[in-house]
């Protein structure tokens, strides 16, 4: 592995990174000691999530440095952070490889998501004015006529994530929201594939709007049954994902991939 150094990296900066030795990689530790490492991390993660970097793709540190125009130290910081999170693998004299998708882990994350969101519905259903306002704000987005519904799959993916995040946020429990955000991040790589199927878009609108109306009427048992079915369906769709489906979702192959 080489230690080429070149220019500055230009992609948009992301959120703050974990801090220096002893705390690096620990969740919730704000430090952002190396902005270039953060930029490498965010750009590579975006490339993995968009399948420009595909499960099994191999690349070298020299290739990354030349492509992004960044020196070895921040580049390696970003790479090792992605390795700790399970997105990359590294081997002696073999370079770096995008990790395969761990479907067993995804199953467990979906189960955790169900636990968190069921608890959120129970709390929002008996909540006060803040919870009620959150439900009304979501209804303004999801309880609309068919001709007003969003159809773009990329936008729908973001809207769906935000729906579930806002349900949890409406509880006022910051720790629940933090864990839910972490789960959302971990399943994002496959969850967006859901909205490449047109029927999932209309089903999502129907299920979200029904769920919100049930919560508003305090019919929480029915809302929870629907929520469980809604998330379980997404979980089952993940199990149907094949390498050919991933390849079809791939935007383009990056030039440094061997």
TrEMBL record:
One of its GO terms (molecular function) is DNA binding. InterPro entries: GntR_C, TF_FadR/GntR_C, Tscrpt_reg_HTH_GntR, WH-like_DNA-bd_sf, WH_DNA-bd_sf. Residues 1-29 are annotated as: Disordered. Keywords: DNA-binding, Transcription, Transcription regulation. Residues 34-101 form the HTH gntR-type domain. PROSITE patterns: HTH_GNTR. This is DNA-binding GntR family transcriptional regulator. It comes from Paraburkholderia fungorum. The lineage of its organism: Bacteria, Pseudomonadati, Pseudomonadota, Betaproteobacteria, Burkholderiales.
